[in-house]
Write a structure and sequence with these properties.
Chain lengths: 468, 468
């Protein structure tokens, strides 16, 4: 009757944001709902609004406004995370860095790149390539995933065994803290022991301790040879022997050691999928190895000699060496064709790590417990074995949350005994936080909470993600 | 008159410690004074006492006693640091982990080692070697420096370009916090994104945030070939070309790129030192490169071919390729013979990092300003060039603190403009803390103080080191 708005506080907040940002900088209503909530999720974005700042100064100003109005902020990168780490509720502001993606500044001599958070991984890879350099992080979502998101989640991917995770590639960061402080720490050197290495706090903390706006990243000289082979093996013991052998003998050039349990290979290369199977199907294990070197064609000759040697030793069942870059790509196509698994049923996706010496027994145990409850389940296993990282996609042909919880228990519980982790590379987000205590101790979680409380006392940065 | 002790509180504190520890666990009086204060310092240890716990439980108990009595604790590793990071005043307790050095537990399959903090670097290297593995960190003080100290200072050394600093080799840590909490976080996997990566707080923070008692470290397969060459060059531009060329062409096997300015090489190989000079003296730059590979003798052939190619391109003045492991060692002997520099006068030692593209001008500027004030100064320059790390040892033939301060100003001030760092690998300790703000911003230093205050509210852990 008096014309008062239903939500004067939220309205004042949005008005203030609107006067700070240009029209493209603030989305509300239908412009918000039209957006999804992530690669693997259905539903539409429920955020109160989406702020799309054009530069770091606007990020600072946005956080100041949010703090004043005590509105929570969910930072958003490319939206390709898999653990509900960038899901915003209706009382929260989604802070997307998608407009902060100016051309990366590459310095070919120091081999560094200064990159805006909203730059996609592929954009950076291409910019480096133009200078005959590489940014070695690589993962399937390269076209959408952003550098800011890669840092906030400490992304892994296909070449960790050689180049490490995102953490190892970050030299310096620019971060906006919860109180609006701009922490500009864009170190460009490989070595800098002048005081605490603050950037480590923000790498992998999923936007809960600060908003990453820019980074200085380490680039590498471009490789001149790329050799790959697809191998089949009859026992897990032989897979482990192969890992030790190739890691020792490829002398720093081994860049991928990707294992696929038989079910993965057989499903992906099923005739109706149109993906050729270079090796006979039906073996228990397949491994894709790749070496990146500086000496072509010498590297090729060595790679073949080495494979002949391991073949003669009886470790391999069969082997196919890629004869061309196209064939290398076709091997990777098998490894990357995870979407073909979706035809088996609604999938529950896991990303765990555990000591490789415990893997065979762990997978057998998970399968046994699944079979006891769901005889027709499918459990597909593959992963970055050289990094102790397995992916399990499991279907029990049900979308029931109770079934899901039972499957999660079966997968996560045994990790505790073997010192494994409920997340190797995807992070915790909302999805896994209930299980965090399975792989982190009470004093660890207390210290995480203390850090969160210290850096974000009002709890406005991505609240409820990781810890709660 | 009443028989009261002069220092009843200190005395009660020592009595309590004494009843906790066995007789070998607590040193006082002359047993303390007989000890030095570090590799590069004269004088005797001034600490109130030295506690030498036998296990982690005793470290926990010691910190609880210290907290109750508000006595400061200075953690001590091998005592080979160079920045007064483990110097204890007379009201402080020195906490030496020298008795915690049981045999490292090596797991050859997961290629990890669980190591007590007091184990020396060399002890770990040898233990890994017995399993045909390597722990790749290496530095001159390997026989004394401890793993705990290496972690607390994020040690660098000779092979960072290939294997990273200590930070990259730590998978998990056990740490005792200032309040006596035991933080056991002995992760064994290469990948673990389950929550905040807490170990990063303690690596490189020089004992100011916690006492490291144990670590799980990443080992590598042992290399099968080691090739080295000593090269001379006539311009810094050619040194940079050589770095890019070797890094690209050695495809992941380049393990050292150590540059020596002419003054270093000429001083060390002066005839009276008895260290042979494989290349003519008198050139402006020398570089020692090393490659570690998995394929002997194939690697040897490739190394020679590559050197011939770079030689033919005109980048090198002269080259000597090591014909044997003994000759490789003799090249390293030149690089490591820093003690020969001491004959030039009392040395002020610096460890800085800066973008390699700025190095030539930086060194010229430092020399010019030194020459203007001290025409007879000597400024010897060398370093881990591939890591952007230079060491400068400077003598102005004076031990006067005022002269020292002037030299520090000349070396440190220009780092600010080029985005360099006052410490690449040695840390800050007491020695460099006054200069920290030259290379870290006010918000960075404020955040360091906030972390210190949060983790050690009573300020009992190595107070005054790094920040103050």
């Amino acid at each position: 009757m008096t014309g008062q708005k239903e939500d004067p506080e939220g309205s004042r907040f949005l008005t203030e944001l609107g006067s700070l940002l240009d029209p493209a900088g603030l989305l509300t209503g239908a412009d918000v709902r039209v957006r999804g909530v992530g690669w693997a999720s259905l539903g539409s974005c429920q955020a109160m609004a989406i702020a799309r700042p054009a530069n770091t100064e606007e990020v600072v100003a946005i956080l100041e406004i949010c703090r004043r109005h005590v509105v929570s902020v969910v930072p958003l990168g490319g939206g390709t995370g898999l653990v509900e780490g960038a899901v915003a509720a209706e009382h929260e502001l989604l802070l997307s860095l998608e407009r902060m993606r100016s051309e990366p500044q590459i310095d070919p001599m120091t081999r560094t790149a200064v990159v805006d958070a909203g730059v996609t991984l592929e954009q950076l890879q291409n910019a480096a390539d133009a200078h005959n350099l590489v940014f070695p992080l690589d993962l399937g979502a390269r076209g959408s995933a952003t550098i800011g998101g890669n840092i906030a989640t400490n992304a892994g991917g296909n070449r960790v065994i050689r180049f490490g995770m995102m953490r190892e590639m970050v030299l310096g960061l620019e971060v906006v803290l919860a109180d609006g402080t701009l922490l500009s720490s864009l170190n460009r050197m490989l070595k800098n022991n002048a005081g605490y290495d603050l950037k480590q706090l923000f790498i992998g903390s999923e936007g809960t301790l600060g908003v990453i706006t820019r980074a200085c990243l380490r680039l590498r000289e471009k490789w001149r040879s790329q050799n790959a082979a697809l191998l089949s093996l009859t026992s897990f013991d032989n897979v482990l022997k192969l890992l030790k052998f190739t890691d020792a003998r490829l002398g720093g050039s081994l860049s991928a050691f990707e294992a696929m349990w038989g079910g993965f290979y057989d499903t992906v290369t099923a005739p109706h999928n149109g993906i050729p199977a270079p090796l006979d199907r039906g073996q228990p294990y397949y491994v894709l190895i790749e070496a990146l070197g500086g000496d072509s064609p010498g590297d090729r000759e060595r790679f073949e000699t080495l494979l002949a040697e391991i073949y003669d030793s009886g470790v391999l069942q069969d082997a196919a060496v890629a004869e061309s870059l196209i064939q290398t790509m076709s091997f990777w196509q098998i490894r990357d064709a995870v979407e073909k698994l979706l035809e088996l049923g609604p999938m529950i996706m896991f990303d765990v790590s555990l000591p490789i010496s415990a893997m065979e027994e762990y997978v057998a145990g998970v399968r046994e417990r699944l079979a006891a409850r769901w005889p027709d389940h499918r459990c597909i296993v593959w992963g970055h074995l050289g990094d102790s990282n397995l992916h399990l996609w499991i279907t029990v042909h049900s979308s029931d949350p109770g079934d899901r919880a039972q499957v999660e228990e079966i997968v996560y519980a045994p990790l505790h005994e073997v010192g494994g982790s409920i997340s190797a590379e995807h992070g915790i987000g909302l999805e896994k936080r209930a299980y965090l205590s399975l792989t982190r101790t009470d004093p660890e979680i207390s210290l995480m909470r203390l850090l969160k409380q210290t850096l974000d006392p009002e709890g406005i940065l991505n609240p409820g993600k990781v810890i709660y």
